Amino acid sequence: xxxxxxxxxxxxxxxxxxxxxxxxxxxxxxxxxxxxxxxxxxxxxxxxxxxxxxxxxxxxxxxxxxxxxxxxxxxxxxxxxxxxxxxxxxxxxxxxxxxxxxxxxxxxxxxxxxxxxxxxxxxxxxxxxxxxxxxxxxxxxxxxxxxxxxxxxxxxxxxxxxxxxxxxxxxxxxxxxxxxxxxxxxxxxxxxxxxxxxxxxxxxxxxxxxxxxxxxxxxxxxxxxxxxxxxxxxxxxxxxxxxxxxxxx
Length: 249
Known about the structure:
By secondary structure, the chain is α/β, with parallel strands linked by helices. The chain is built from eleven helices and seven strands. Helix 3 (83-95) links the parallel strand 4 (77-81) and strand 5. The chain is globular, with a radius of gyration of 16 Å. 47% of the residues are buried.
């Protein structure tokens, strides 16, 4: 399988998995510093960029990522944000011996019905009217209103990213999230785990992150105040302040 991946830096392997509503450029503000101490792989998720699509379940996405992990010279630490975090969680549950430490940013194990409905709605919208149909909604799931007010350029930047996505693959990922339940797998995860969440995350609310942290033995939780769904993009310094000591410890 061919993977759409950008590799930078030298050192222990570190795999970065992006959110459904972004692309790997969401790590642009943190990857250079992480690459000072790691060999960083910025992977386009299955079905995004040029990485081939996976099956209909998040576990299928995780199995695809595991095939990329098998090509690395060493077992990587893994950072996943949003959908990338759900995939990272499934990766740890199914292939935990192949990876080392786990960082889950704005991630959960299962959405309540109120959280599943928006994914079904986005899937239907893009299948009928293309990616343009969900741009406004998606941007407000990524960023809280105060951030958008202070960074008006964010809307155009995210719109450009979202319009590049394949609507069919995007819809498949949405439906995978709408049916996911990884809660039974949490107690069996042995990887050292850090859970990070923005307190203003509207897409994956902090309560879901707290549930993950409580369910994984020994997991640590860091909440980033006044931050939305994508801390590496919105609050890179705070994100690195949480992640770097964990990776280096």
